[in-house]
């Protein structure tokens, strides 16, 4: 047998391995996942979660969960709780739960230190004036008229800002670096702005809030984060990250960047996802069509499938578009091993077995999952009247149609072989009822009939059937790459992203199914019970089809 090669390290793992070998971090590796609580996490965040926690786990380190709550206008406790739930659901445990707001006093003191060192100043310029001062990537900026205020004046003004003496936008604190720097982020960036808004944790205690670029690196340093892993768009921010740490002379955390996840047929922008929710294009953040972790969970995706997906796409230094089909492959692979096979008829017609006693009910033992390590069975009631799929009968079947038509034979899953004898139609010519005769000696597991049939179909006993609603979900957008779509992206919503079948029939055992439980509706797809379900009405979400139907469409 060919010897398996050990999995090669990605570039971040190589960096960490070298740092450990050199003894650079004697206390061990410490990463962090720093979401802003201004929305629900999506599959892109899942990649970052798996990367940060996975990296630390691999090298015996730990990971902090730190909420970057520096913008009270958009942040809510609801989002904090949803983020914690998502990270835990994915299977990760954080070392410490922290908030950038925990460090507001520390960050303020850092800012005063930079003022004292003449590396920061209070600016009275308006937002438009500051933007004009920045210049362009090809032309240097110009100095603010307030750039040369004395240390004493800057300290007094900054303290007055903290004391609430100024209105929103009246003053800002800027770093004093270089208005001719080729990196626009180094041209006297903002450090603090005034916001007279109640904060979800600190209330009205503060009216000045640090900018991300100032808070990020210093928060990393306070926690002694060894490897601060960001998405690629923060590459140009790294010099500023390093500049603040260097000027303050504090623990030198280091930032590394990786390519963010772009997934086909959906949007990954929090702003656009919020728009979908607010305009009721979808039914909330956890709508199963959304790329949010809560949406994927409600749809029936498993933590293992998402972790496997993130592992398969790897860690790159260049942005690329990942086909949604890969995520679907990962969930099929997982559910094939874990999901019970059950029977549900989505487009029913009645099958009457004319030679089976009308007053008889038989409890048949049917395998739950032939792929499971331990094979278990369940009891399913069988009677003379069954629901079968409409597509499993044809009036005039073609050759190699291995289902039902007059004179054709088929095996009923876990039950008997039946021979179609007749059918009924309504005035419009639609088939309403199929008649057949069963072969008593052909019972599954006890077949002595000697008859071989090529087709097997699923069924549900009419007398025992449970009504349910099925929601079939598909791609949110009709276009593959949504990264270039502007605010008119709603024009590209897939009109068939949700198809509701209000009345289907499922076997009676599904009345005891639990929310989120993975199930395979035989021959139809993978489903899970939705949280909208009640004792009076079962609702099932399609997680994924049995096969990649989109691959066929793309090949046309």
Automatic annotation (TrEMBL):
InterPro entries recorded: aa-tRNA-synth_I_CS, Gln-tRNA-synth, Gln/Glu-tRNA_Ligase, Gln_tRNA_ligase_bac, Glu/Gln-tRNA-synth, Glu/Gln-tRNA-synth_Ib_cat-dom, Glu/Gln-tRNA-synth_Ib_codon-bd, Rbsml_bL25/Gln-tRNA_synth_N
Record key words, sorted: Aminoacyl-tRNA synthetase, ATP-binding, Cytoplasm, Ligase, Nucleotide-binding, Protein biosynthesis
Domain (tRNA synthetases class I (E and Q) anti-codon binding) ranges: 456-530
Chief place where the protein resides: cytoplasm
Transmembrane segments: none
Residue positions of motif 'HIGH' region: 35-45
Binding site for ATP: 36-38, 42-48, 231, 260-261, 268-270
Domain of life: Bacteria
SUPFAM superfamilies named in the record: Nucleotidylyl transferase, Ribosomal protein L25-like
Enzyme Commission number(s) from the entry: 6.1.1.18
Catalytic activity: tRNA(Gln) + L-glutamine + ATP = L-glutaminyl-tRNA(Gln) + AMP + diphosphate
Quaternary organization: Monomer.
Stated name of the protein: Glutamine--tRNA ligase
Organism: Aquirufa novilacunae
